[in-house]
Amino acid sequence: xxxxxxxxxxxxxxxxxxxxxxxxxxxxxxxxxxxxxxxxxxxxxxxxxxxxxxxxxxxxxxxxxxxxxxxxxxxxxxxxxxxxxxxxxxxxxxxxxxxxxxxxxxxxxxxxxxxxxxxxxxxxxxxxxxxxxxxxxxxx
Length: 140
Prior knowledge:
Elements: H1 2-23, H2 36-41, H3 48-56, H4 90-93, H5 97-105, H6 127-137
Helix pairs in contact: 3-6, 5-6
């Protein structure tokens, strides 16, 4: 009986260790919001999509979730706004990536009564960061 309890103890420890690996920060799923742990570890040069997602959901950055909802936000403590349209099917809505970038840079150019801030024109977000956000948006 003691041999079997040692075996189960060793087996249980192996299962716990394997399970803890699953909790380690992993890259986000395509078309979702990255977790805070992923954002802390992301290298924008190696993964521009994840970096863009991190910027888009950062309150000091794009803060997109204040007005929009999108996939993955339900897994976080953040609440999505409903002022803007859902960020979904972005490739279909903006087949030309340049138009999507222009929308983020200055939405007033396409709709002068929009409430979306002109992130680029008012230098709320840098041009480089807008490019990263657009890379992420294109996965939604």
